[in-house]
Amino acid sequence: MKIFVICSVRGMDEDYRKKLEDHVAVLEQDGHTVHLPHRDTDQEASGLEICSQNLNSIEEADEIHIFYRSKSQGTHFDMGCAFALGKYVKVIESEPYDPAVKSFARMLTEWQSSLEGDEEIDA
After folding, report:
1. Residue 119 pLDDT > 90, yes or no?
2. How far apart are CA 1 and CA 90, in angstroms?
3. Which residues pair with 27 in a beta bridge?
4. Chain centroid offset of residue 73 CA
5. Long-range contacts of 20-24 (CB under 8 A, 24+ apart)
6. pTM to 2 decimal places
7. CA quadruple 20, 22, 23, 26: dihedral sign
């Protein structure tokens, strides 16, 4: 299976990097092909090229794993691509949120819940 990991790239600390790379190592040990943006997207490219590379990899992916951080603009862009493409998502990590307030963290819970038993959503 091809998996794309949506995560923060800029400003990541070593603990976050280790968490991402440990998650990917397990997936790759299990035989999956994983696209991890800080490792597999050319971070020296222009912003437009980075977004295009990620869009193409998201489109090719069978499944999307999300490590959500609300301060990451790239995370929001990649989530929009995955949503528009109707991709199956697994929220691996998110931020706490108030269930009475609309937020992207809440939307991720709703999105994943809407996919229970489904392989894709109709966006």
Report:
1. no
2. 14
3. none
4. 12
5. 20/67, 23/65, 23/67, 23/92
6. 0.89
7. positive
> Which amino acid makes up residue 90?
K
Backbone angles phi, psi at 92, to 5 degrees: -85, -40
> If residue 59 lies in a helix (H) or strand (E), which one and from where to where?
helix 47-60
Distances (CA, A) of 89 to 12, 21, 43, 62, 80: 22, 18, 24, 9, 12
* 14, 54, 55, 91 from 18: Cα distances, Å: 6, 21, 24, 17
41: its two tokens? 């997207």
What are the pLDDT digits (tens) for 73-109?
999 999 999 999 999 999 999 999 999 999 999 999 9
Backbone angles phi, psi at 12, to 5 degrees: -75, 140
